[in-house]
Amino acid sequence: MRCIADTASRPSTSGLNSLAPAVGLRGFRNRDTLGISRIVAESLHEHYDPSLYQSLSQQWPDGFLVAADSADQPVGFLLGVTQVEGEARILMFAVDRPWRARGLGSRLMEAFLARTRQRAMRRVTLEVRVSNATAIRFYTRFSFSVTDLLRGYYSDGENGYQMARAL
To answer: Is the CB of residue 128 less than 8 Å from the CB of residue 164?
Structure first.
């Protein structure tokens, strides 16, 4: 996964207050596909078949969170899946560049962790590029720690870290 924020520092309270009226969190809708695809291409540098988002949203609808602006257009998202009993996996997580460093990533993560607790999950995992120090610091703030080195994990051959946290 690529960087979800330009900085990993805690957002200021004023940034959160200015963001609150402009952005709402909600579930994925099929009409979000184009916006999510654009964010994935620009932020994660990946291209997936659009049907993937619709398919994954059906597996665990509450695990696919979308941050939408005042025009109800996606400006960030967190896509979580369940593949192992009692465990959630963050499959994709990105915030559109103009919306970064405003607390939106933290809001998405907090909402996702709350939903995993509601489902009585015991653990959350994710993968991140070893070169993505900003994202690693962000995840560490949420009590994730590196559990494994994934050699050649990404399509360009870069190594990844698996990170996990207990709930």
So the answer is: no
This prediction has a pTM of: 0.85
d(CA 123, CA 60): 16
Look up the domain containing 84 and give its range.
13-125
Q: What band does 47 get if pLDDT is binned at 50, 70 and 90?
A: confident
Does residue 139 sit within a domain? no
Residue 134 burial (CB count, 10 A) = 19
> Strand order in 87-95's β-sheet?
24-27, 64-68, 74-84, 87-95, 123-129, 160-166, 145-150
User: Considering the domain boundaries, does residue 137 fall inside one?
Assistant: no
Instruction: Look at residues 145, 108, 105, 107 and name the one whose alpha carbon lies nearest to residue 125.
Output: 145
Is the residue at 152 inside a domain?
Answer: no
Largest alpha-carbon pair distance within the chain? 42
The number of folded domains in the chain is: 1
